[in-house]
Amino acid sequence: MTTSVTRQEALALLKKYNKEPFHLLHAFTVEGVMRWFATTMGYADEAQYWAMAGLLHDVDFETYPDEHCQKAPELLAEIHAGKDLTHSICSHGYGICSDVEPVHTMEKILFATDELTGLIGAAVRMRPSKSVMDLEVSSLKKKFKDKRFAAGCSRDIIKQGADLLGWELEELFEKTIEAMKSCEADVARQMEES
């Protein structure tokens, strides 16, 4: 899986349709998380593709929330994104706002980690350190079980994502925390520049 879309093109498109700092933070986080997964799971040669899918997965969400994953192909066409990248991006909404099924390992990871990065981000904001660096899986499991905490993050979607990958929830938690640790400093730098 490769893409001819440059990060500069992707970032310009993202910022054209997304102004809220929270949405940019989420995009940068998922980009970094996807790059980490590509590198650690033996897809290093596809890391740029995985990262682009992460960066652009919610490209249409802020401007067209009621058409999420439906409007994305039209917006992605502005930067001549290929069919593969468009499919990957739309598949993260499978069963929620899209009928595009995640097939490739990358698409399953994007589906599984999208909601989870939101839950981890909420947990991190509650910590004195405001950092993922000292977040432990046991702490995240407690937050996951507390349905009132970050109520907007669907536990069912996170579970479904783990099932799609054939992983236990704990494995998904552990890997996603590590992935977020790998990009935390870079995400903070990008937010300062945005």
Topology (SSEs and partners):
Blueprint lengths: L6 H11 L3 H20 L6 H10 L15 H6 L5 H9 L13 H21 L11 H9 L9 H11 L3 H25 L1
Helix pairs in contact: 2-3, 2-6, 2-9, 3-5, 6-8, 6-9
Q: Could you explain the architecture of this structure?
A:
The protein is an all-alpha fold. It has one domain (about 5-185). About 65% of the residues lie in helices and about 0% in strands. The chain contains nine helices and no strands. It has helices spanning about 5-15, 20-40, 45-55, 70-75, 85-90, 105-125, 135-145, 155-165, 170-194. Helix 2 (about 20-40) packs antiparallel against helix 3 and helix 6 crosses helix 9 (about 170-194). The radius of gyration is 15 Å and the shape is globular. The chain starts with 6 loop residues before the first helix and ends with a helix.
Percent strand equals: under 5%
Please outline the major beta sheet: none
Into which percent range does the helicity of residues fall? Answer: 55-70%
Give the overall form: globular
Number of domains: 1
Keywords summarizing the entry:
globular; 194 residues; mainly alpha
Write a compact overview of the structure shown.
This protein is mainly alpha-helical and 194 residues long. 63% of the residues lie in helices and 0% in strands.
